[in-house]
Records
---
Amino acid sequence: MIAWLDNESNSFPAIHTALKEPNGLLAAGGDLSPARLKEAYRQGIFPWYNQGEPILWWSPDPRCVLFPEQLHISRSLRKRIRKQDYDVSFDTDFEAVVDACAEPRANGDGTWITRAMKGAYCDLHRQGIAHSVELRINGRLVGGLYGLAMGKMFFGESMFSRETDASKIAFVLMVEQLQNWGYALIDCQVSNNHLKSLGAKEIPRAEFKRYLNKYLDQTSGHDWVFNPERLSFGETPR
């Protein structure tokens, strides 16, 4: 049995009470207000549900994360990045990135990015918490991702590609930028082969919570602007 949230309080059950099957399901209900979302991420919780379902809140164990210094760039991806035949930017078209992430996948899967979900993260973007990465080729948006930056942690939400390796390039350059800014951890939520190929790994939920406690309140002290001056663009072996 999971808890049912109401709109009177933004509190959540303790994350160790989440179900083991399905892994990490913690609560249902509530709303997607900025205050509730910020509190959820502070506790290691995120929303994930399909259209027509109640809002479902998750905190899986283990948790998929990427330590920026452990970013892995394959030889083929490094070669592609070196070409630099693309333009990368941060926060130039957040809504377009979310819309692209919400497009149906090639495998036929639907989207969990509902209209309410999009509106909620756009609200967080206007508050300077949610951010996007855009990758363009000849002015066309071909890849990118979005997520939340809180303290010295980045919480990845979704990415998309309209060209081969576009999301990987956007992710790599974002990670290198975050590393230069002193970010300690990137939350990838749930593991998949795409993330593992970039160096993501799973850690126990309790360990993830310790990183939250340590880094969420540390000041990042930077503007969310892409600055390529100190980036390797795939030149430095990892």
Note: The mean pLDDT is 94.
---
Amino acid sequence: MALDNGTPLNSLGFAKPPSETRVVVAMSGGVDSSVVAAQLAEEGYDVVGVTLQLYDHGAALAKKGACCAGIDIHDARRVAEKMGFPHYVLDYENIFKDAVIDEFADSYLAGATPVPCIRCNERVKFKDLLETARDLDADCMATGHYIQRKDGANGPELHCAADANRDQSYFLFSTTPEQLSYLRFPLGHLPSKDATRELAAKYGLSVADKPDSQDICFVPNGNYASVIEKLRPGAAEPGQIVHADGRVLGEHNGVIHYTIGQRRGLGIGGLSEPLYVVKLDVDKKQVIVGPKELLATRKVPVREINWLGDGPFTDMAEREIAVKVRSTRPPAPAILRPISETEAEVELLTAEEGISPGQACVFYDPDSTRILGGGWIWRGY
């Protein structure tokens, strides 16, 4: 592809040689972003690697399975040294705490099930880091996310990754059109994670066999409650476990230890029917339980909507779309009914169980791989 004057576009979409195209690569220290940086460096781009220190990594040095810890900063630096491009570590601890951790704690205490990785992309990586990239006179910023950016008739579009098993669209729905014009996702077209590791081996990167991160970076071993107790002392106040019909079934040691849809570990054995957490009443310090059918939800109120479709969000009374209400499920058919520019009601054609406030509801075009945006579920029961 070339512009009207005949100048060919490089692989990042700019009408100039790679050597004159500066790209900031957000490097977590994992194999994905390392491959992006190495590949662009080998193609001759003016690569600048940036790693964010998001929290005090002293305590995290020995911790495996989470990004942005001290060992990851070291791994990112080694990749930069091998491939011969500059690498910077930026201290974003205060920004990360204000923009991500505090809200995570507050929303969890309010009985929600937050997804802090989305907020981190939205408020830190694609906001402050993106501005830093602009300050460095970069033409664009590249990340190791598995998602695709395609040029459409009305500008850049966000599309699912070629590998559905690696697709990260659920975590990137809040990317704005302006951010999308500046971002690049070089791995989105790859058929599998194995292909990424093969590239890492080809470039001789030390992280080629490094395991994927699993946990939220500031939540060791997935133990949310222990982190909340440290951030908000006194949060684990005891209260009652109450059946949806009003019966008091037992005591609990803090609402923060429970999530919507939970069945195991309720501590109320000996009952004839299996019970699930169907609601968390923080004000009354109650964990409300009931039969599985009480978890089923068809109507989902959504707010803080980021719209990536063509035309104004409110120009149609309703749209047939597909939605994800959790990252691990495929998109399901739904009707989207806008209420305002930033609020809507989503009606699921098939009821879903365990929908919780604090989770994301992501919109998809039912006839293509395009992501149409999404919002936050604010009352899932």
Note: Residues 161 and 167 are 5 Å apart (CA to CA).
